[in-house]
Every structure is written in C-alpha cells, then in structure tokens.
C-alpha cells in the first residue's frame, strides 16, 4: 500500500476545516454566536457547509476531468461525462433548505467516492487516491450529517 504524499494529505485535511467548523457551530451555541459575530452569519452552521460543499463538488469535477485526460478513446469520453456529474449535482440538488441540501450533499460526496473508485480502477488516479478520498469523504459526510440529522 502506498502512503498518501504529504502535500495532498495536508491540503486535503485543511480542506475539511469549513465542514468541521460548520458541524461545531451546529453543536455549540457559543461557537455559533462567536462565528456569526466575528465572521458573519454565512460562515456558520449550514451556510458554510452548503456553500463550501458546492465548491468542493465542483472542484472535484475538475479533478476527475484531469484524470479523464489520461484516458483514450471511449474511456476518455466516458470519463469526461462522469467528471461533470459532481458539479451538476451540486448545482441542481442543493436548494430547498439546509436539511435537504445537506442530505443531497451527502449523497453527492458518496457518489463522488464511487466515481473516484471508477477512475482509480481504470488506472487514471494515483495509487494512493482512494486512501485519501475515503478519509476525506468519511469526515465530510459525518460533518454534513450533524446538520442534517441532529
């Protein structure tokens, strides 16, 4: 098993901060009050998680698109089509209130994980990719679940 390189691991973990912060501000009225006063109401609870979740799903579409460039023929075409799905999901499925948006983001990140696995199985992703994606997806879905189900 190949270790996750340090830079992607650190950057991936740092990318969890808005999800973790959103979950904390759901669970802690003091953190929510401080965050709303110091950062603004868009940067606490569901608002930070939903906005950032949309951005990350769109970003991950770009990552998958990059993987698709390594393929050829029909697999490349399939890869390009699959690569746009996370961004489209984020665009179309995150309206209708914070609970529904959080649940749809959970499904979006779980679907993204399946796409990651497909690209990895085709040999288009780095050998360490799934280890990183499993870790990040687990934390993201737990954080989103705090807002959706608690």
- Listing every helix as H and every strand as E from the N terminus to the C terminus, the arrangement reads HHHHHHH
Instruction: Give the DSSP E fraction (strand runs of 2 or more residues).
Output: under 5%
Number of helices: 7
Residues in helices, as a percent range: over 70%
Number of strands: 0
Report low-confidence residues grouped into runs of 5 or more.
Answer: none
- Overall SS class: mainly alpha
Shape verdict:
globular
The main β sheet shows up as: none
N-to-C CA distance: 36 Å
What number is the mean pLDDT?
97
C-alpha Rg (nearest Å): 16 Å
Protein name: DUF3429 domain-containing protein
Organism: Ruegeria pomeroyi
Pfam families: DUF3429
Keywords: Membrane, Transmembrane, Transmembrane helix
């Amino acid at each position: 098993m190949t270790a996750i390189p340090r830079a992607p691991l650190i950057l991936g973990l740092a990318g969890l901060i808005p999800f973790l912060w959103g979950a904390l501000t759901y669970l802690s009225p003091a953190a929510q009050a401080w965050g709303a006063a110091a950062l603004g109401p868009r940067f606490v609870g569901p608002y930070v998680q939903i906005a950032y979740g949309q951005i990350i799903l769109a970003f991950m579409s770009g990552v998958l698109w990059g993987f698709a460039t390594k393929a050829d023929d029909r697999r490349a075409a399939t890869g390009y089509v699959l690569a746009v799905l996370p961004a489209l999901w984020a665009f179309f499925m995150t309206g209708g209130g914070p609970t529904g948006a959080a649940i749809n983001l959970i499904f979006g990140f779980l679907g993204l994980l399946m796409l990651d696995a497909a690209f990895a199985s085709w040999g288009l992703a780095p050998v360490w990719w799934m280890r990183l994606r499993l870790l990040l997806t687990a934390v993201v879905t737990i954080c989103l679940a705090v807002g959706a189900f608690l």
